[in-house]
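Sanity check

After download, print the first record. It should look like this:
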Amino acid sequence: MKSTFKKMTALLSVLLGGALLTASAVAQSEAAQADNWRYDHDRLAQITELEQLHATFHAAVSVHDPVNGDSPEVITQRIREALSIWAKDAKATVVGTSAAAGNYVGNGDPDDPESCPRPSGDTSATGQQGTLCTFFKYLAGGLQAANKFVSLSPAYKTKFVPVRREDGQWKSSVYFECHYFDVSLNPATGQPFWTAKSHVDLDGEARKIDGRWLLTRVSTSAVPVPIPPDPTHQD
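Expected structure tokens:
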């Protein structure tokens, strides 16, 4: 009788222990799923904010009045909008052999010659042309008064990968393309020319600083006309 009782007690202990272990495992799994869900939710929210940064950039570098061209005041405001999505110590590198090639370091104010100097002409890999303001005010094709350009960006070439660092702060890789077209009016038809002017990318990094996503380090170079991915292609 005692032997049977001991066996039953041992069996109940095993079953109870297994139940407790199972409950603990389920609880941990549910907690992990909740954490993953919260992280995925947070990532989607960050991507939405990064898309707004993307939209701000293209709106700033595109002409607002394709018929008459933008006034100097409007262009200055567009330069300020373009600069608003960059960190104070951001760096952009234009890759290539054009007069705009080189490094642009720091933000700047288009009304301040000290923080927005004219290009230095130093297109070397280690030289500095000026600040980001230098690039947008004097060299960016879409922000020159004589040009009536719009910048289009294919969604299927755009990619953001936000991750939360160990300190809780967010950073993200950034990639998008800018395809500039001349939308000045053709006198013969009264319709925009839609002549392709340039195709470039912006490839780099953004960080969330004081609650705002800002570009910190990027490079830009010429790219071909974007070809959509083949939906039948299997990796």
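If your output differs, re-run the checksum step. Summary of this record's structure: Residues 181 and 196 are 4 Å apart (CA to CA).
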